[in-house]
Amino acid sequence: MAARLLPLELIDKCIGSRLWIIMKGDKELVGTLRGFDDYVNMVLDDVTEYEVDADGTKRRIQLDQILLNGNNVAMLVPGGSPEDT
Amino acid sequence: MAARLLPLELIDKCIGSRLWIIMKGDKELVGTLRGFDDYVNMVLDDVTEYEVDADGTKRRIQLDQILLNGNNVAMLVPGGSPEDT
Amino acid sequence: MAARLLPLELIDKCIGSRLWIIMKGDKELVGTLRGFDDYVNMVLDDVTEYEVDADGTKRRIQLDQILLNGNNVAMLVPGGSPEDT
Amino acid sequence: MAARLLPLELIDKCIGSRLWIIMKGDKELVGTLRGFDDYVNMVLDDVTEYEVDADGTKRRIQLDQILLNGNNVAMLVPGGSPEDT
Amino acid sequence: MAARLLPLELIDKCIGSRLWIIMKGDKELVGTLRGFDDYVNMVLDDVTEYEVDADGTKRRIQLDQILLNGNNVAMLVPGGSPEDT
Amino acid sequence: MAARLLPLELIDKCIGSRLWIIMKGDKELVGTLRGFDDYVNMVLDDVTEYEVDADGTKRRIQLDQILLNGNNVAMLVPGGSPEDT
Amino acid sequence: MAARLLPLELIDKCIGSRLWIIMKGDKELVGTLRGFDDYVNMVLDDVTEYEVDADGTKRRIQLDQILLNGNNVAMLVPGGSPEDT
């Protein structure tokens, strides 16, 4: 059986790697994790933000570095990307 | 009468087993529980995510490993699956 | 006059008994209470979940054992059931 | 001038008496207060629940004993009832 | 310049006086303040509740004494009334 | 470079001055700040409240003194007014 | 690999620099960061506020200095601006 893995341990393992972040609502991002705090607020580099406008068109926005409020994060997928699905 | 079972005790018994997670809203997931914290944030492996789109079509998405924010979890069903109902 | 009864005392008296749980929104459940914590998260056995779909049809789902997030519980009715009303 | 009366003091005076509870949203209840905690979760006996369905019809449901989550309580009216207005 | 006045100091000065309470949403009340706690839950006497129904008709409801949950209070106006505007 | 200025320091500097308060939603107010607490609940004198009704008409309401719940404040603009824009 | 960077460390590095702030909902701002607290409430100078009205028209509002409630901040982009995308 795989060893037990706590949530913050998993995030810590993702430092320096690509992380797919699925927000509550339709917004998704992929970026390289630089740091995080206990509330899962995250510093991310080389970020691609995927937005779906009201009329369904998909937009990609490139951002060098962001601080993301962890409050609206629904799910983290280490190494994943919406482009995989 | 069955012995008393506390919520976190039940989740602890599920480590390494399949767990059906019903979120507030329409989203459901099944995965193998690797770990969790006091807020029921959960690390899950071999995850199938069940989504119902606006027009009612059901989508399944396979994800190797995720960290799920416990904030939006409505219910956990040990060993269950939406495919059972 | 009936003796004073604190909320957590009442729930404690329900351990091992049938409990009707009315959620915020339309969802209701009946199950046997196995355990609970200070946030009224509850472990329930032999659960019947009553759902009303968007078109008004009533669905019953049977679940062996669940952990219910207490956050969305509106009301508990010891020994009651939606089938009584 | 009437003496100062703190919120929890007022509720305490209502133990054993009829209490009209107005929830956020359209739901109202009347019951005999058996106990409460600091979050104004309340144990109530001989409860009448007043609901207004989507099409405006008023329903009354009788419940022997309930535990009401204080989180959604908007207002308490000692000795009052929606039947008075 | 008028002296500094802290929020709880202002409410304390209102004990025994008429207070206009504007809730989030359309509900407003006027009553005599009997007591309050740190969450601005308030005990009010001789209360007039002003409600606007869905079709715009204004209703006044008289209540002898209430406990109002401070959670939904938007604004307090010492000595004021919606009848002034 | 301008010196560092902490949020509560900025509010403290506004005591006795006019303050434009923009709420979540469409409501805005201007008033003279008399006092505040750590939750940015505020005592304001000589208040003008700007409301936009459902049909777009703008209403101004004058209030001598209010206590404003800081919970719904989106933004404070020292010395500003909606009349400036 | 880039060094670890904690969220509050990143914000601290932005003192005196331009910061693009994306709020939950459609509102965005750019301003010079003067100070912040643990809740990411922020004092900003030379602020441009970008709003999209219901009918889609974009409005820019210039404000000398504001205190922004951190509660509704979704994302911070150091040195960025909506004019870049």
From TrEMBL, chains A, B, C, D, E, F, G:
Record Pfam families: LSM
Quaternary state and interactors: LSm subunits form a heteromer with a doughnut shape.
GO molecular function terms attached to this record: RNA binding
Protein name: U6 snRNA-associated Sm-like protein LSm5
Superkingdom of the organism of origin: Eukaryota
Main location: nucleus
Keywords, in A-Z order: Acetylation, mRNA processing, mRNA splicing, Nucleus, Ribonucleoprotein, RNA-binding, Spliceosome
Subcellular location, record wording: Nucleus
UniProt keyword tRNA-binding, yes or no: no
Record's function text: Plays a role in U6 snRNP assembly and function. Binds to the 3' end of U6 snRNA.
SUPFAM superfamilies for the chain: Sm-like ribonucleoproteins
Organism: Ectocarpus siliculosus (Brown alga)
Sm domain boundaries: 6-82
A GO cellular component annotation in the UniProt record: spliceosomal complex
Similarity remark: Belongs to the snRNP Sm proteins family.
Coiled-coil region(s): none
An annotated GO BP: mRNA splicing, via spliceosome
